[in-house]
Amino acid sequence: MGISKKVRGALEQGSWIRRMFEDGIKLKEEFGADNVFDLSLGNPVMQPPKEFYEKLSTLVSSPNPGMHRYMPNAGYFETRDAVAVSLEEEFNFSFHADDIVMTVGAGGALNVIFKTLLDPKDEVVLLSPYFVEYRLYVDNHGGSSIVVPPDDDFLPDLQALRESLNEHTKVLLINSPNNPTGVMYPEGTIKEIIKLVHEAEERFDSEIYIVSDEPYRKIIFDNFEYPNVFELHNRYIVATSHSKDLALPGERIGYIAVHPKIDNKSELVDALIFCNRSLGFVNAPALMQHVVGSLQSVTVDVGEYQKKRDFLYPKLIDMGYEIVKPNGAFYMFPRCPIEDDVKFTEELSNHKVLVVPGRGFGLPGYFRLSYCLEDNILEGSLAGFEAAISKYRNS
Q1: Which of 156, 217, 306, 382 is most deeply packed, by most CB within 10 A?
Q2: Which of 198, 206, 202, 148 is closest to 173 using CA atoms?
């Protein structure tokens, strides 16, 4: 009795990230925190930019009257307007505050979007590998997940994508730069994806929304530029947060941006606002809305993440790991030297290095590591990575 059968089943399957976190606690208790190298979590150690603390200090010392009260469920107009202006500058596309809904992080944004769009039997296409919670979010709102495999470069298998789009497809979910691979979909790939979506809409006389999960949009390396999807598809909705670009994951502040030319925009935005309220979020955190409105052009030092990538990547390659070099975010997704990714991550754990098996992201045979960590953890992990792959190098 007690909890629902669905939740009980989900708990039994468990989250690999949660499992590795719990294993890390046990290892640190046994061997000491300095002797365990936990690369399993995407929890940035980088501090928020100085502008964040300056704005926060101003608000604390000179609070605006009523700044902790309820506001419109979409969020403060001035915050939404600041987001709209920033998007207009970034994408050279006309936005208005009414195109924006402030949310409780990107996870809250995705749940609001799926609640708004999905009916029973509607399908959401996920591009593997994918963030572990996506399937749960879709299931929360009665949808079904259809998973499309990647090619060898972790870009979508376009033929498989074409075959996955059908009369039940309501949403195609994109995450680029990607968690767990760090790969960013180039503009050519985005155009091919949208071409397939348009063909499917015509073939099935349907409407397919592209929902883009973009918490890493501003963490891009090597002078890559983020493709302007707003020019390519009107049924386009962004879900994002400031968890990564401002290093504020615990503050749960994000937003939804709908394409200014999307069909029935007024009804859609009203529905998003309604679902923001009815799901119990009510509104995004008031204090953080006051803060981030003035920080839309500010990010953490992305160069620091690139330095960490450029430190770790060549060393793992020299050891014999096969890795698609990340273009952004702060993850790598190496291929395991054996087929069983769980067994290999257990081998790494034996050497006090914690990573997450690829099956937790819908792609067995790989593992995810995060490098948004202190340099001493990355440096300390190298011996364990070398010892683990050496066991299987000649087998």
Answers
A1: 156
A2: 148
The H-assigned helical ranges of 32-144 are 50-61, 77-91, 105-117, 134-140
The CATH fold assigned to 66-295 is Aspartate Aminotransferase; domain 2 (3.40.640)
Q: What is the pLDDT of residues 135-183, one digit of tens each?
A: 999 999 999 999 999 999 999 999 999 999 999 999 999 999 999 999 9
> Rounded to the nearest 10 degrees, what angle do helices 265-278 and 105-117 cross at?
120
* 169-175 vs 123-127, strand pairing mode: parallel
Helix H or strand E segment including 390: helix 375-392
Domain boundaries in the chain?
A: 5-48+301-392, 66-295
Element (H, E) at 277: helix 265-278
> Would you say residue 12 has pLDDT above 80?
no
Q: How far apart are the first and last CA of the chain?
A: 48
Q: What is the mean pLDDT of the chain?
A: 94
> What confidence tens digit (pLDDT) does each residue in 15-66 have?
766 676 677 777 777 777 778 899 998 888 899 999 999 999 999 999 989 9
Residue 47 CA to residue 226 CA, distance in Å, equals 24
* Residue 218 CA, distance from chain mean position: 12
Q: Give 50's Cβ-side CA count (13 Å radius).
A: 0
**Which CATH number applies to 5-48+301-392?**
3.90.1150.10
Q: Considering only CA atoms, which of 324, 342, 370 is closest in space to residue 37?
A: 370
* Residues linked to residue 335 through DSSP beta bridges, in sequence order: 322, 366
Locate all alpha helices (DSSP H) within 152-236, ordered by sequence.
Answer: 158-164, 187-204
pTM of the model: 0.95
**What is the structure's pLDDT at 16?**
67
Q: Cα(336)–Cα(338) distance, rounded to whole angstroms?
A: 5
